[in-house]
Structure formats: C-alpha cells, structure tokens
Write a structure and sequence with these properties.
By secondary structure, the chain is of the alpha/beta class. It is built from eleven helices and ten strands. Belongs to the DODA-type extradiol aromatic ring-opening dioxygenase family.
Length: 274
C-alpha cells in the first residue's frame, strides 16, 4: 500500500510539472560527498534553482554492467564502492527511497533494448556523493540506470533519447562521471587544482563541442586526438555525458559550471541543459 501511495504521489499533477533540466556532474573524489567545497556548493546551488523533482534518475560511472539495468527496490542501500578513505565517508548513509513503479515505467519506455529490473545494486558514490548535497533530506526517490559496457557511445546517446518522456514527468536525469578521468596519471601536487596541458586541451575540445551542439564529435571521441584518448583511457566516466547530451532538444542551450581541472588528469567540468 505504501508503494502504491508513493506511485500515486509520483504520477499526480503531471500536467502541471515543469519540463525538467538535465545534468552532467563531474563528481570527482568521493570526499566531495562529505566536504562543503566549491564543487559541492555548486551542486547545492543547482538544486535550489531548478524545479523540485518528483524523482531522480542517475546514470553513474560506477555501475558498469553487461546489459542495462535499473534499480527497482523500495529502499536502495548506500554503496561504499571505494577504499582508502576516512571512516567518516564509510559511515555515510543516504536513505532515499526508490520507486519500483517508475523503474518499470522507465523499462517500458525503452524499445531498443531490454532494461532489467535490478534488486541487488543501490546508490553508489557516483550517485549519493552528489545527490546528498542537492537533496539532503533524502526524501526524493532516487534510481540508478547502469551503463552497458558492451556498447559504444552512439548506443548510449540513442538510448538517452528514449528517456525524454521522463523529463516531462518531473524526473531529473543526471549523468555522473568526469569528462577527463585518468587516475593512473594523477598528480598529488595538483590535487587541489590544476591540469596537465593535455587534460586542459582535451577538456577544451569537449566544452567547445558541447556549447556548439556538436554531439557527433563527442560521440566519436576516439577521433578527437591523442589528448582526448589520454583523458579517456576507459570510457565509464565519459559515457554518462552521452545521456545528458542525448536528452538535449533543438531549442535548448548548455551551461557549464564547476569548470576546473584537479589532480592534473581529471576535470570537474559539468553541464546543465534546460
């Protein structure tokens, strides 16, 4: 009965719901989840300046699966998918509810592939480290959509387009990763700010393409040069951007924020559409 009431609350008043923006968040270090800094402060600001969502759907770099899955439990657990950090980070719990009915509705929306209802995952730090700043009361349902590692960027971009209806129903769709993300080349001397020349050049290419709506260049990122390939040694942190861009319509522009390189080989550059 409680789940049914939650769904009725979700679906009530949909005609009056604002067309939700779409976000790509550079989430960076898990420590951003418990620190109030320039990045997390902006996440708070974003949440205060968009309509309150009826639910949040996160595409996180940290749920990389064969096939596509969506969390479909009533109460997704908080996952601490990292090591070597202070105990305070492992103590974090973000007890936001899930929404099984919305998971099923999302699965039914997608016709190009099967979306499997998952009851084993939860909210990894790609989701909760950002969302806990945006919606600290944990009173908005949060779901995660996994990234199929067997598919290319074009596939993920196209899949995103099938989710557009959710924007009209008050769902905030949020990609969480980092455009430039090469942990093997992190510089601890630049951990508080600064990037290698190649990281800055790659990030500039991404920003120019985003602002000019040159999505095809971003989909075919492997052809953008050696600096880009250094910035994306593996695609999991880049692919959430494809979901954000795939949901952009012809009339919408893009706004960049948290545009900063850290640790030499990572960029926190983030995008708001709508």
């Amino acid at each position: 009965m409680e789940t049914l009431n939650q769904f009725k609350k979700f679906t009530s008043g949909l005609d009056a719901t604002a067309f939700m923006p779409v976000l790509f968040m550079g989430h960076g270090s898990p420590m951003n989840g418990i620190e109030l800094n320039e990045f997390s402060s902006k996440w708070i600001d974003i949440a205060q300046n968009i309509p309150v969502p009826k639910a949040v759907l996160v595409v996180s770099a940290h749920w990389f699966t064969k096939g596509t899955k969506i969390t479909a439990m009533d109460m997704p657990p908080t996952i601490h998918d990292f090591g070597g950090f202070p105990q305070a980070l492992f103590d974090v719990q973000y007890p936001a509810p899930g929404n099984p009915q919305l998971a099923k509705e999302t699965s039914d929306l997608v016709k190009s592939t099967d979306i499997f209802l998952d009851h084993d995952w939860g909210l990894d730090h790609g989701a909760w480290s950002v969302i806990k700043h945006m919606f600290p009361k944990a009173n908005i349902p949060v779901l995660q959509l996994s990234i199929d590692y067997t598919k290319d960027a074009q596939y993920h971009y196209n899949l995103a387009k099938e989710l557009c209806t959710l924007r009209k129903k008050g769902v905030l769709i949020l990609g969480s990763g980092n455009m430039v993300h090469n942990l093997r080349m992190v510089s601890w001397e630049m951990i508080n700010g600064g990037g290698y020349d190649w990281a800055i050049e790659a990030n500039d290419k991404f920003k120019n393409a985003i602002l000019n709506k040159n999505h095809q260049a971003l989909i075919n990122y492997q052809t953008m040069g050696s600096d880009v390939m250094l910035g994306i040694p593996t695609p999991e942190h880049y692919l959430p951007l494809m979901y954000t861009l795939g949901l952009q319509n012809e009339k919408e522009g893009a706004t960049l924020f948290n545009d900063k390189a850290v640790g030499g080989s990572l960029t926190m550059t983030s995008v708001q559409i709508g």
